[in-house]
Amino acid sequence: MWIQRSGARYPGGQGAGIETRHAFSFSGYYDPGNVRFGSLVACNEERLAPGAGFAEHPHRDMEIVTWVVEGELTHQDSTGARTVVRPGDVQRLSAGSGVRHTERNAGAEPLTFVQMWLMPGPGAVTDPAYEVVRGIADGTPYALERTEAVLHVRRLVNGERTALPDAPWVYAHAVRGAARIDGETLTPGDAARISTAEGLEARAEGPAELLIWEMHAESGYG
């Protein structure tokens, strides 16, 4: 298990009112030893001031999953989707052969969200697709059809325990509160990368919210 603390993320940002923290090599920050974990190739923490946003830009061959921490995210893309994503919703954009989208904070309050990019497996469907699951229930697994990956959302009360998946690659990101995994405490923005996880659990130290990726394939390029 390797822990990446929130303060060790790479800083980024694009335009006024945007603050970004990257968990992996991204854009102008490249570390050959930190380009992926399992099928996960990006986990970005984004903070957008009211009125700030990302202008229209393209993606392809990527599964993009977004979790809003606070505020409201306005999303629009070339599939025709136009939605407002709120805390508790899971947003998925399958870029496929190519898609363009915009993301912005059209509200009056600050917006914070976590965006995670995963590489699809060989032979994945190439048509772009979009989905929002509203108010996903605690513990409900969300499987990405185009990858061998499952997202588990866990909201825990003080002292509550949750089993981590037994999987070749497990990525646990602390959204709120604190949780202890194998002797290490994660606080907001921290993440644990666990290889060949087996028989592990997380225990909340106070109320906590975790995003846990269970992955059974590694990303590949070319």
Automatic annotation (TrEMBL):
Domain Pirin N-terminal: 16-118
Ranges where the Quercetin 2,3-dioxygenase C-terminal cupin domain occurs: 155-215
CDD domains, per the entry: cupin_Yhhw_N
Species assigned in the record: Streptomyces endocoffeicus
InterPro entries: Pirin (IPR012093), Pirin_N_dom (IPR003829), Quercetinase_C (IPR041602), RmlC-like_jellyroll (IPR014710), RmlC_Cupin_sf (IPR011051)
SUPFAM superfamilies per the UniProt record, alphabetical: RmlC-like cupins (SSF51182)
Protein name: Pirin family protein
Pfam families hit by this protein: Pirin, Pirin_C_2
Family per record: Belongs to the pirin family.
Transmembrane segments: none
